[in-house]
Amino acid sequence: MTATTSRANQTRPVPFRAMLSVLLISIVSIYGFLAFRQTGYAPGSTTGYRLGLYGALMMLALLLYPLRKHVPWLRGFGRLSEWLQFHMILGICGPLLILFHSGFRIQSVNASVAMWSMVTVASSGVIGRFIYGRIHSRLNGQKLAAEELNRDLGKLLLNIERGGALPQRVRELLASFEARVARQPDTLIRQTFRFLRVASERRSVLRAVRRELAGTVDACRRAQIEDSLLPYLKGLQRVAQFAIYERMFALWHVLHLPFVALLVVSAIYHVIAVHMY
């Protein structure tokens, strides 16, 4: 069994979890919509209160994921990937119920602060999940280091050449692109420019390779090489972007936590104000 096949087998359960997540989010959305559409609905009604309560409890349950990561005696409870999936579902369902609870209207300064804090936290969570996926191989928290990527790229290149040696000019193009990728810029600004430019460079290399293959390799072999080259070049692109994604993820952590704290404080104040007045 090849490394590629093994990795595919390891990631096979992910689509089922994704479908389950969509199903749960859909059920919560339908419930919130039907409750919101009831005659005479208001945020202070029994139905509106329940929507707000359920949404607030889901938002509160989001704290379970960081506890699972950092509290030693909780680390034996389930896989971290499953906790993250649960965290993501709650991070969508909770804000949805809060939106239905509010009737999509903001009637006080405190409610406005709580609402926009919630929207910011939910949005930053989506962004954080995207960045997380760029620097981790799977949802199990196993970091995909540049060295591991390079090993995988070497195997991909061997598979490409298994049907015959590549033309010399094609090998030179690939070696040149790989050498540029290996030279990581030393400053954040240069890394950012590399991050923005590398996708365009990858497409240019692929076009140049296709031109070289057109005159030296038969159509069947050419199609085989091109199909194999795409994941290889995309892997090189990920190597080039790896450092900037790590910096982005570190910055995301710094920005995400204050918004979470603001959300908790404003939500507690909102609940107290509603029950007192």
Structure write-up:
With 277 residues, the chain is mainly alpha-helical. It has helices at residues 3-10, 14-36, 46-61, 64-70, 80-102, 109-135, 146-161, 168-182, 188-214, 219-276. α5 (80-102) packs antiparallel against α6 (109-135), α6 packs antiparallel against α10 (219-276) and α8 (168-182) packs parallel to α10 (219-276). The longest helix has 58 residues, at 219-276. Residues 1-13 and 138-142 have low confidence and may be disordered.
Give the structure's gist in a few sentences:
79% of the residues lie in helices and 0% in strands. With 277 residues, the protein is mainly alpha-helical.
Summarize the helices and strands and which ones pair or pack.
Blueprint: H1 3-10, H2 14-36, H3 46-61, H4 64-70, H5 80-102, H6 109-135, H7 146-161, H8 168-182, H9 188-214, H10 219-276
Helix pairs in contact: 2-5, 3-5, 4-5, 5-6, 6-10, 7-10, 8-9, 8-10, 9-10
